[in-house]
């Protein structure tokens, strides 16, 4: 019955949305020759009602995903919900607005007094975080279209060693820091620009972006969710918040019987093994020393990272269009005569003196210098904490999903023979990946 | 079981078909994409050839038809290819969906429960390995970032250094070698500039060379002391006695004439234009005039200015190769000695209720502008070759109308300014404040003068001070008995001279501040006095020049008249004085 209700709601939403058209503030001219204006690089603005509809749908999806993960415990339902999210947030909404990109909107509104973030963008940023704090990474399970498209293409995932996972796990923080730095300086929204899957959602992207997207999907056949695990900056935040979640998906609904059937069920290697049979005291002694040393080194990491970040401000800031143009004119003044260079010609006809341009570029570079300190210091802090975290040896009795790494997709649920009442079922052969 | 085998077979065949389909579509898409990249209608070679032919033969109608047809075909082919790419993409998408769905179902059916691996103690080793690889990763990242930072060129920094002249840039627009040996030290030096506009070589002149000219407001370095000789002491402008030439300046302005060699420069402005005029010193012939024109950033309308200020109050400065002029609009222009424009810019319309009136001054490769306004104090140094900012300092002063003076002491130079509340000296190379004294108040219009190791500054309703510059600078004496309002004081041979707006000239002992004499001449002074050959020349607003000896006793040498009102300060050269009346420019001397 619930299944039918879900399908009906989904169809109603699609039907409702298809009848309401967005309003253009400045309507395009109508050509008598039947010329069709090509679609812009960003989706056309929608009516406010539809924007809030997106938020409502996000809340509904997250609520359902949380219910599925914690109460219903059904991989099949989670799968279909993720398909809905892929179709709605991905193909229908063309991947915009998304919670991952909303990081930049929030950053820009904090640093640019002239930019006012829309309520929708703010809610898209905050709502998944709130749900994660309560119920774990259910956003990744079923609401994120980027995660959904990768999740559907997992065919033969291979397990990666811990050291590879932990090392690659540092990259999302680097990407998050860069995204915030570039957004704060008004340079670019790199998360949106380098979204590998938005080209598929819009059926429109440069050849290189299509190639990158295809490469991610191809890699995802064997290395599950590569973008989520290696790059996603929003995932870095969710990773942290999920550690403190009030509730989280568990593999077993009752007491774990240590049957080990779930140990290889997770394509993301997010299941933590019990530690009772290890010589924990001996290990604890070794790790305590490391813990203290790495803890004391955190200020050193922060300072070193900050220093290097500040030094990197020169090459990082070259991505800023104003700095790029200014340095281009300094390095190649003969380009002033190049009539085909639109950027230079636009500048020359603007009436702005080159001196003013240089001054403005210097102001931006200084912002990068300060931002570089903060970015590098942040990375130093992260690395210090990661090293410290690796020294912490936590005793574990049962097989349980890692609160930080588990996407709550529910794949492991079918592997567990324990029922809610604590009885043990026969080994299920109906396993869906 | 049999069902499963049938299912697996079906799925396998489905995967095969869709896989082949997707591969073919992908190859076709790639080919199509390559075609689009290489066959853009705008880059069509045949089309370009036809267009070139049409340019040579514009009346060829048949050719026009051919071009239109070929253009239409090219566009059709292009958009057709685009449509094919889009359609192929959709087909590929559906094919891929079917393929991957079949693959997933196939894998699901084949899935088996795997024997779990017991990690045992490996977990601890794994952590240690993780830590090591994290350290390696961060090491690579840090080394990479540091290397990239050292390999990256900071062109903004290179640009600023090249503008300061302390770096050989190799930039074809700026190749300047500044061989001054220390900050502010003036030496003869040559630098090369191969800019497309302006002179090919820039000569940085010595103090002695500059002193031979009358190149700025109140003479060389703005100090009001001239070394010129055989200056006339009598003339009659109305009758033409000793008037070598007299010309009407087409546009009015209260700026003072400046002289370099045998050229006299003034400027004038009205609501229509801002113009620099150049006259022959010997004949008074107008050699050239240059209209500043529309400078980017210039305000659409002229600013509100007082009648006493006008639209062209700031005196020009000449460095021997370039002439610089500034107007209350913030327009600043640089011309060569023949009136050809070198550069121009607008440095922002100042918030000035009377109108910007501070005059320019230049030294070596820098042009200095005292740009105090209601928005605060500011001094700007620009590169004379390019107009680029060398340094630009903000200071905690209020608006002023005085002009900067270059103080030369022990062969070192500093820029000295007076405003409310500071009288200060700045390093001409860097703009760094060398000394300052908080002693001035009110709306400061008179500039400083210096002599005998002291700097003198004064303002109406404030005080007259003598400052010993240094670290710290000290006030030697101060007085409020006789104060200048507009006219700047001048000092020579231990005697300081003040001209007031009420018509008084006073002589004060420069060391003690004690008044030596004063005389009320009845008509006020807006122009500033100049001392030359032991005589002080002060022209009042009525056009009468009061010539007195530089002496502790009042000795009037002469009081020739111009025949018209005068607010500007005269310029001197050997045997001649150039005086600007409100209407005419006079050259006084022996014919």
Explain what the structure shows.
The complex is a heterodimer of chains A (433) and B (591). Chain A has two domains: 47-274 and 397-415, no CATH class; 280-391, no CATH class. Helices cover 59% and strands 1% of the residues of chain A. Chain A contains 19 helices and two strands. Chain A has helices at residues 2-19, 48-72, 75-92, 99-111, 119-135, 138-143, 145-151, 162-168, 171-184, 190-193, 198-202, 207-220, 226-230, 233-242, 280-311, 313-317, 321-331, 342-348, 354-391; strands spanning 271-272, 400-401. In chain A, strands 1-2 form a two-stranded antiparallel sheet. In chain A, α5 (119-135) runs parallel beside α14. Residues 16-23 and 429-433 of chain A have low confidence and may be disordered. Chain B is an alpha+beta fold and 591 residues long. Chain B has two domains: 2-110; 207-589, YVTN repeat-like/Quinoprotein amine dehydrogenase (Methylamine Dehydrogenase, Chain H), CATH 2.130.10. Helices cover 24% and strands 29% of the residues of chain B. The chains are: A mainly alpha (433), B alpha+beta (591). At the A-B interface, α8, α15, α16, α17 and α19 of A face α3, α4 and α5 of B.
Please specify the SSE layout and strand pairing.
The complex is a heterodimer of chains A (433) and B (591).
Chain A: H1 2-19, H2 48-72, H3 75-92, H4 99-111, H5 119-135, H6 138-143, H7 145-151, H8 162-168, H9 171-184, H10 190-193, H11 198-202, H12 207-220, H13 226-230, H14 233-242, E1 271-272, H15 280-311, H16 313-317, H17 321-331, H18 342-348, H19 354-391, E2 400-401
Antiparallel strand pairs in A: 1-2
Chain B: H1 2-38, H2 45-56, H3 61-110, H4 122-151, H5 155-164, E1 189-192, E2 201-204, H6 207-211, E3 225-226, E4 243-248, E5 258-260, E6 263-269, E7 274-280, E8 286-291, E9 317-318, E10 322-326, E11 331-336, E12 341-346, E13 361-363, E14 366-370, E15 377-383, E16 389-395, E17 405-409, E18 412-418, E19 422-427, E20 433-438, E21 449-451, E22 454-458, E23 464-468, E24 474-479, E25 490-492, E26 495-499, E27 504-509, E28 515-520, E29 530-532, E30 535-539, E31 545-549, E32 556-558, E33 571-573, E34 576-580, E35 584-589
Parallel strand pairs in B: 3-29
Antiparallel strand pairs in B: 1-2, 4-35, 5-6, 6-7, 7-8, 9-10, 10-11, 11-12, 13-14, 14-15, 15-16, 17-18, 18-19, 19-20, 21-22, 22-23, 23-24, 25-26, 26-27, 27-28, 29-30, 30-31, 31-32, 33-34, 34-35
Helix pairs in contact in B: 1-3, 2-3
